[in-house]
């Protein structure tokens, strides 16, 4: 009998710990700093590891980058609108009610997550340079595209100047460490290649801490008291259907494109995931009076995507080395 995956057990433990012992509010700024530090270390090590020509080749791969953006900002909103329409055909309330459906549709408008997409792509031995390019471009474009897509679904009055600040945050926490890693690649590159545990610890550590931090915030905001259990189950089912559709579409599309398996992994992980950090930030500006319930579907989707994609990443990581070389 195969032993359970230790990393997956750590993710489950992080959720249980946050549910029964969430991080106190007074300590949350320190937890946020720790999360940011781990993410910055991850990008620094990735920058020290990756060769510059690999990044340039990734930008040139316009099919992969274009398909990732298409799925994130076109296919996802269409899937959300289709699920919304079907649910309201079957029930006048759509089973979930207007507020939770607003959260589902807002989820579909968000950009791809950066840190976990890249971490899982790295874990699965996919095309990490392409993942960095795809996830970063998705988040920068999402600053403009997400509010525009939200405007198509909702009649809201919230406005705010969060675009420049979000770009600065991305540059400070993600791009700057990566650039620093590239600058010292000549000296740090051999060290990182010799001690691969540095990459492994930064990848897995950032995801585990991110899960605990995100779930702690939701629990302290009354996650288990404000929403009836039956609605939470309904949101979980809707999120699971949405994630399954996204993973299936990215898998089939990768096969049809006849890419290498590394590019398939990048498309699947970057195209099927949604950003929690950007989503919470944008929701607080776009929906100032109802951001809490709006981000609930995103919170559940975030946990689902981490668990499911971790299992998929571990499956990809166990493939023989010879399978990674030739394109299909």
UniProtKB/TrEMBL annotation:
Methyltransferase listed as a keyword: no
Pfam families: SBF_like (PF13593)
Protein name: Bile acid:sodium symporter
InterPro entries the record matches: Na+/solute_symporter_sf, Put_Na-Bile_cotransptr
Keywords on record: Membrane, Transmembrane, Transmembrane helix
Annotated transmembrane regions: 30-48, 69-89, 101-120, 132-154, 166-184, 205-224, 230-254, 275-300
Highest taxon, organism lineage: Bacteria
